[in-house]
Design a protein that fits this description.
alpha+beta; Glutaredoxin; four-stranded mixed sheet; 5 helices
Length: 116
């Protein structure tokens, strides 16, 4: 099973999710998304696999989210994905992608539904 974790090592939740994946016996592909951000196309694919869509991928606690007006209800998925592609800090960490789908895993135990 291929598991990808879009990870920020300075985030406690992100570290917890990585530990849960490894405790399940899976060594995931770890993407340090602040250094190697996903492309706009990759973000679109992740959002397509996430039952909650693009909005789930948006880190609403990030100050930039409000500054860009992304916290408004009428913001489109395309606007959200464009903003995340341009500003990787807006990615709601950690995002995990498996054959079962994709999710922003907050709280950390959300990842368990994506694992075998």
């Amino acid at each position: 099973m291929t598991v990808t974790v879009y990870h920020n090592p300075s985030c406690g939740t992100s570290r917890s999710v990585l530990e849960l994946v490894r405790n399940a016996g899976i060594e995931p592909e770890v993407v340090l998304y602040l250094k190697n951000p996903p492309s706009r196309k990759q973000l679109e694919e992740i959002a397509r696999q996430d039952p909650q869509g693009a909005r789930d991928l948006l880190r609403t606690k990030e100050k930039l989210c409000a500054e860009l007006g992304l916290d408004k209800a009428d913001v489109t998925d395309a606007q959200i994905l464009n903003a995340i592609a341009e500003h990787p800090a807006l990615l709601n960490r950690p995002v995990v992608v498996t054959p079962k789908g994709a999710r922003a895993c907050r709280p950390a135990d959300t990842v368990l539904a994506l694992l075998p």
